[in-house]
């Protein structure tokens, strides 16, 4: 019950890593708001958490819309009166090499995956400031730290998240608000299931991606959620502005 009475917003909490975070926060006693644009999956995840005794709401929110992010923030404040934890996790995987990707796709990735993080911070931070405390965890990626062919816009968005994490950690430290990021390696979630489905040779891609991780396998959504919960908790009380890799050693691999 580490998070008893704490209120957490998890964006993209309907599926994958966000879902794992929402489940674990609820199990640890938090009141959880799932902000996601997929109503069916969001309601389903919320119902499952509720059935297990968790305190949860689903708020249909498209993180590309400032008005919807504002409405979600207000709904959480109306219901629980505070926001202690914000997990900016929602993102879409849209690939493309730099000279092939079109401007609409570029803008879509940046809005969905990077500006969305600012939108939620812009709405939630004033409430955290008033409380004099808070913890924000942004979902980055190893793609912000290393090159992977065909992901120009996605990698740029994740690199932007790292920079935003460091900047806001500095700006918000005097207000008692910590800001960190988690950079996962390959995690088997609906996002990657789609990438594999669309690959020319899915078996070859899965084998190569497994081998890319020194631990020899993909990670689990729960393994990323563990890092998110740690950073959000008081156990991480002296950690801010950090980018924590959960990547099976992918980034340190040199041969
Ligand atoms: N899976 C991986 O291998 C991996 C690796 C590195 C980083 N990440 C990052 O982890 C996070 C979660 O990824 P995942 O694999 O769980 O993805 P996923 O596709 O399985 O889940 C993403 C969730 O975000 C929601 N979402 C997407 N766009 C949204 C929008 N505009 N508004 C509201 N909700 C939206 C989706 O509905 C979904 O519930 C993302 O930030 C992703 O970039 C994933």
Automatic annotation (TrEMBL):
GO terms under biological process: monocarboxylic acid metabolic process
Chain ranges of the Ketoreductase domain: 6-185
Family annotation (InterPro entries): KR_dom (IPR057326), NAD(P)-bd_dom_sf (IPR036291), Sc_DH/Rdtase_CS (IPR020904), SDR (IPR050259), SDR_fam (IPR002347)
Domain of life, source organism: Bacteria
Family assignment from sequence similarity: Belongs to the short-chain dehydrogenases/reductases (SDR) family.
Stated name of the protein: SDR family oxidoreductase
